[in-house]
Amino acid sequence: MSGFDKVVSDYAEAMHGLTDGMTVIAGGFGLCGIPEGLISQIKRMGTTGLTVVSNNCGVDGFGLGVLLEDRQIKKMISSYVGENALFEQQLLAGELDVELTPQGTLAEKMRAGGAGIPAFYTATGYGTPVGEGKDVKHFDGRPYILEPSITGDFAIVKAYKADRYGNCIYRHTAQNFNPMAATAGKITVVEVEEIVEPGELDPAHIHTPGIYVDRVIQGTFEKRIERKVTAKENR
Question: What topology is assigned to 11-102+150-218 in CATH?
């Protein structure tokens, strides 16, 4: 295989270089499309003082939630935190710094960071605590606030398939934040369900080009249900 082969054989190699105090951008939405093996490796490494950027922080005992157990996360930048009791406990106790960000703004922060755009204006959040202290400009008579983009030392991503060159495709809603996260890391690690040989993926179907990806690892995944809801029988 050529020098373009990005497949690594174990999780320790996949997350090599992660150290205390770094910023990690994680793909996923709830428990859908999360790089759970890479998250578990961060827990095993015991890395602390992390700033984690992700839509939410998993649930108690699974996903990013496991990193709260040993207080490995110092700051969380996310849009939703409602499914994790330990998260709430640490937030209220002042043990966890939380920066709540509107969901679309969070996605654009990642995308802009990956595109080399340092900041952008958005109407979302103007006139709310989100916009306090931020620069305001008017376009066509409407106020917009300036939001800085986000980049990370590591981006950890879950994909459906990838070839050995790092070209990725995602499956249905498991795509969510993963494509934006993949562009925004200095080192991007992709955990996939299946690795294929170069040429097997249709170039027209590639979601994340391999140019953004540094490492690829084959993972195994647990299909958890975040919240079970059953319909009541109509009587």
Answer: Glutaconate Coenzyme A-transferase (3.40.1080)
